[in-house]
Amino acid sequence: SAVISQKPSRDICQRGTSLTIQCQVDSQVTMMFWYRQQPGQSLTLIATANQGSEATYESGFVIDKFPISRPNLTFSTLTVSNMSPEDSSIYLCSVEGTANAGEQFFGPGTRLTVL
Amino acid sequence: GEDVEQSLFLSVREGDSSVINCTYTDSSSTYLYWYKQEPGAGLQLLTYIFSNMDMKQDQRLTVLLNKKDKHLSLRIADTQTGDSAIYFCAERFSGGYQKVTFGTGTKLQVIP
Prior knowledge:
The complex is a heterodimer of chains A (115) and B (112). Chain A is mainly β. Chain A contains no helices and eleven strands. In chain A, strand 7 (68-72) and strand 8 (75-80) form a beta hairpin. The model of chain A has no long low-confidence stretch (mean pLDDT 94). The chains are: A mainly beta (115), B mainly beta (112). Chain A binds chain B through residues 1, 31, 33, 42-45, 48, 56, 58, 92, 94, 96, 101-109, and chain B through 30-31, 33, 35, 41-43, 45, 48, 50, 88, 90, 92, 97-105.
């Protein structure tokens, strides 16, 4: 299985500020995915990040609000910009497994609270 | 369309079997997943099934897939208190970036 780490694990931020979340994978992967889980809700895909190209955003998510970097095959960042309390969520990084077709793994998540 | 539905809550007694159900709408799914999320924790991949299979068993877990009815179920045999968690059904689509879409989650409560 892929081992995924995220930093920070949690943060409390002020309205109007930005936070960058890092995701590190222990193996090279083609695609990395960023999800959001709002309190008491299911997971929603924010965007898909390929190395060397711009991220592909899902409906309702835009690059200005959630810029993503993907500098290499093991690392990605998601920035939550100009935060408001509605951005309080868990943000999770996800990758496909490399050993067995179909596997999809998730990082431990970053729990963000915006005051 | 991409829509995955689950019942919100299930309560079972310790030692009984639990069956968590899920329905999905997209017939082009390639893989279907079950994830477990304990309070304050991340998502744990429990098991998954390729769409051309109809059953998969892994220790106490049995996954049944009815493609005709677009129905997926997870059976947990001999349910333990440690199985108390939220269980998410999810499907991966065959096109584009093969994104994974999640169901609403079923909260399983195991009564000692």
